Amino acid sequence: MAVYALTGFSLVSLISFGYVSRDWMKPNLMENEPAADYTDKASDLTPKPPPHIIFILTDDQGFHDIGYHGSEIQTPTLDKLAAEGVKLENYYIQPICTPSRSQLITGRYQIHTGLQHSIIRPRQPNCLPLNQVTLPQKLQEAGYSTHMVGKWHLGFYKKECLPTRRGFDSFFGSLTGSVDYYTYDSCDGPGHCGYDLHEGEGVAWGQSGKYSTQFYTQRVNKILATHDPRQPIFVYLSFQAVHTPLQSPKEYIYKYRGMGNVARRKYAAMVSCMDEAVKNVTYALRKYGYYKNSVIVFSTDNGGQPFSGGSNWPLRGHKGTYWEGGIRGLGFVHSPLIKRKRRVSKALVHITDWYPTLVGLAGGNMSDSEDLDGYNVWPTISEGKESPRKEILHNIDPLYNHAKYGSWEEGHRIWNTAVQASIRVGDWKLLTGDPGYSDWIPPQTQANFPGSWWNLERRTDIQKSVWLFNITGDPYERYDLSEQKREVVKELLTRLAHYNHTAIPVRYPAEDPRASPELNGGAWGPWAGEEEEDHWDEALPKKSKTKKKKCKLCKLRSFFRKLNTRIMSNRI
Fold first, then answer.
1. 487: part of which helix (H) or strand (E)?
2. Which end of the chain, N or C, is more open, meaning fewer C-beta atoms within 10 Å of its C-beta?
3. CA distance 188 to 205
4. What is the average pLDDT across 261-277?
5. In what residue span(s) does the Sulfatase N-terminal domain sit (predicted)?
């Protein structure tokens, strides 16, 4: 058996240090599981109004970065909400921003929307396909008032791509993937910086100086205060926290002054600020009469980035990779409507499942949505029933750099293992191609991290292109069984080939120079005409050789992009 172990640690030592719980590895264990809560039979016959739905999505929050996972970061609100609801401990998301958001809002895998490669960049004439019926559109059909506050990151090159054209009655937030928390400036490389705070379909000028996490929460509270709670409401609160740049009000940093690592200290402060923001939202739900008939869903969009303060310990990998640290998400559901509360669910759940689950809760029509990749998992969450989901296609990305050692021969003539792909079927998880850098990185409390931790010799798998793990028994991906379980490998490769036959072409067009904020009044926003034809089959964007003066924010973003690129291409 090939064992890829964490240098200097053994599984026994991890348990003894308290980093790993033995119980965490048991797939069917329930914590504090109470007896079923049976309500009066007659009350079940009384028509109940559709629940208010609050979906909270955080950005780049690591698997370890919540109190109930043993983190040193304080999250009392999230801990309490999760403890009183259902913790989802077998919950999967995508490794980067756009893919998770697209799958949440469509209920479909990336391969079925053409967004299977990378993210939607600000200057790309690309967005969530207009033929997709979105989650808020289905909720509108069911009589909901729908509102989005926060980060969109699903494209905006045409007005039809904007949130208010995709099912939201109101929108307040940013369109790009990363903005300054105070100035709302966003850069897409040198010389391409602009303002990115929008209300509806217009630019919300003059708001600089207001910290986005708190500002977005204030907007949600205003929406709740002015809405009639007798009408069902859907609020999608998509925090930009805790994505870079690492910025936080000073009062949240003080409690972490003892942390030697500056990035971790700032990151922790951002998480605590976000935790307080969630507290303010839940207070508003109670104050304005929504809470008793509400469902609160909390989810991250991808794994944390250790170089930016995040931690996915004890999982392997990080944001941008298909190891568990990149795709196993923080998630829980809190609601007075849950029948079996205060428990931990190990049922398999994926971010695509929220679409049919929430539409089902709303009493919406799903008859025209039979080709979804998501499942209605409300009975699983509320009553503890078995999950209808048995497998997850994590992704197939034909454009990502092909693995040097992959081939059709390695894939038994079933699959080209040079292609980046990953799938989970039952207990088994298969990865092919280059899944991204794979290390187990403890919380970075040391002042000189990553220099004190980083070790090139730890990467022992760079000459491979196939990995197989029993992810239920080995959630930390320490024991590669691809050589011992060749028949299982073949079965999962066959499933990948099956999914690949259903994939649509990748949408990843070249960048459009007309998108530059300099040509659009200094702000990011739609630039293409409504009648313009799309050209998805054009060449991929080429990097400009023109050197331009860099702003401080651009330099920071450029640094992290280059660092991540070097990691992915095995140059460090």
1. helix 486-501
2. N
3. 20
4. 97
5. 51-363
* Cis bond before residue 450 (omega within 30° of 0): yes
Residue type, 352: T
User: Regarding predicted confidence, which is higher, 443 or 298?
Assistant: 298
Q: What whole-number distance in Å separates Cα of residue 188 and Cα of residue 273?
A: 27
- CA atoms within 13 A of residue 345's CA, in its CB half-sphere: 31
Q: What is the mean pLDDT of residues 424-433?
A: 98
Contact 355, 106 (CB under 8 A): yes
pLDDT of residue 552: 47
Residues 6+ apart with CB under 8 A from 355: 104, 105, 106, 107, 135, 138, 369, 372, 374
Dihedral of the alpha carbons of 394, 424, 236, 204, in degrees to the nearest 10? -20
Mean pLDDT of 152-160: 98
Confidence of residue 90 (pLDDT cuts 50, 70, 90): very high
CB-based contact 293:337 (threshold 8 Å):
yes
Question: Which residue, among 395, 365, 416, has the nearest Cα to 112 in the 3D structure?
Answer: 395
pLDDT band at residue 15, thresholds of 50, 70 and 90? Answer: very low
Output DSSP code: residue 563. Answer: H
Contact 214, 277 (CB under 8 A): yes
Which pLDDT does position 539 carry in this prediction? 42
Give the Cα separation of 160 and 529 in Å (integer).
10
Per-residue pLDDT tens digits for 297-351: 999 999 999 999 999 999 999 999 999 999 999 999 999 999 999 999 999 999 9
Q: In this structure, are strands 170-174 and 145-151 parallel, antiparallel, or unpaired?
A: parallel
- Segment 83-111 shows an average pLDDT of 98
Among residues 255, 257, 252, 293, the alpha carbon closest in space to that of 275 is found at 252
Residues designated catalytic: 97, 153
For residue 351, the SS3 value is helix
Q: What are phi and psi of 194, to 5 degrees?
A: -160, 170
pTM recorded for the entire structure: 0.86
What pLDDT digit, counting tens, does each position of 403-421 carry?
999 999 999 999 999 999 9
* Cβ-Cβ contacts under 8 Å for 195 (sequence gap 6 or more): 183, 184, 185, 186, 203, 205, 517, 522, 523, 524
User: What is the torsional sign of CA 89, 91, 92, 97?
Assistant: negative
Phi, then psi, of 40 in degrees rounded to 5: -60, 130
**At which residue do the structure tokens 């799938």 appear?**
423
Cα 271 to Cα 240: distance, rounded to the nearest angstrom: 11
Q: Could you give the CA distance from residue 237 to residue 220 in angstroms, rounded to a whole number? A: 8
